Fold this protein.
Amino acid sequence: MKLRHRLELGAVGLVLAVGVAWVALTALSVRREFGRETDLRAMTVARHLAREVADPVLTENRFRLGMLLSEAREKEPGVRYAYVERDGAVLAHTFEAGVPEALRSVAPSAGTRRLRTPEGEVVHAAQPVLDGLAVVHVGLDAAPLGAAARALTLQTVGLAGLVVLGAGLLAVFLVARVMRPLEGLTAVAEAVTAGDWSRRPEARGTGEVARLADAFGRMLDRLEESHRRLEDANVELEREIEAHRQAEERNRVLQEQLLRAQRLEAVGQLAGGIAHEFNNLLAAMLSAAELAIRRLGSDHPEARRLQTIVEAAERGGALTRRLLAFSQRQVLVKRRLDPNRLLEETAALLAPTLGEAVRLEVRAEGRVPLVRADPEQIRQVLVSLATNARDAMAPGGGRLLFATRRVEAEGREWAEIEVTDEGKGIPPGDLDRIFDPFFTTKEVGKGTGLGLAAAYGIVQQHGGDLRVESALGKGTTFRILLPGA
């Protein structure tokens, strides 16, 4: 139940209780007052009659006593009976059949007493005559005065009912007048709780409730300001947390890149030294085999075995060149070149070798900056990436995309060359090792694990970067970043 209804019921109940108590006390007071009035009138009649019957009592004139009693009964309204008693004997009375013994047994010798008779309630008054020589008894009907008392009580009840009704309505009005602003404050508080800070209570008048509404409004203003500052602080804190998270992520990536670079550098130095020495050995073997073939002639039976040695030495030389490319020990012949033109020329050379299942698509952006690079080395990188893409899409094939775009990073322009396939993708666990030398996801005998390592070394030697993105079942994207010339 709402507070307003409880206050209204409480006020009405209080007014009703006060009204009932007032009516009860008034009725009791009226009854007592009318009782005293009845007793006083009965005694007045008895005293008056005692004076009148004094002489007849002395002379024992019963006839005169009877006349006086009859006159008193007829003249005094409400007198139901009267009799004179002396020494226990009735001298005169107004009863038709004599004084009832039951009445004489309960009648007082002096004063008043209320008695119940078959005809109704009477006030019996007894007044001694001549210092107790005799006693005058008068019975006064109490019904008229009781009816008057009841009528007055009913009037009082009616008046009290009107007063209670008026007071109840006034109480309800006052409660409503007091509760209306409080309900307004409650509505404003609920709106603010729901997030609506635009609501403010209406402060009408100059009373306590108006001052309360005004103070409540000022409090809401301060709370709104504090809430706004808190939200701003939360936004700033979230921004700082996000910046810190991004910084930690960048540091983690940089640390991983540094570790990978250190690992690749160590492997590259080792591979470069081995490749250099191995290349010298292969060069000597190749020269000796070619010289022997020229001396023996190409038709000599041993020339065929020597030719096998030449071919093996050439394959070994290609392998050493890849190792040298990975270790960044190759001599680059750099010149200014257009990445778009290089991409189109390479695509034209690659298209016939990729097979009919591979759809080669070229998208060249017009604002790509020129770069300083060795075109043959960059072309070798593109060929290596395209070959891997073809193998990843086998046997079903798919689209192979070559694209270029201009990129701004670290305060300078970069040319980005993108190679995207629709192959099976690279497992997430292999992405961190994809550029490691001798690491391959191909079957044994189908890959040396040096293609991507050599491509990474070539791009790094140009001052750029080679990045990879892949999703299983969707394909792989390699991005070659070269600094603008």
Q: What stands out?
A: The radius of gyration is 64 Å. DSSP finds ten helices and twelve strands in the chain. The longest helix spans residues 208-296.
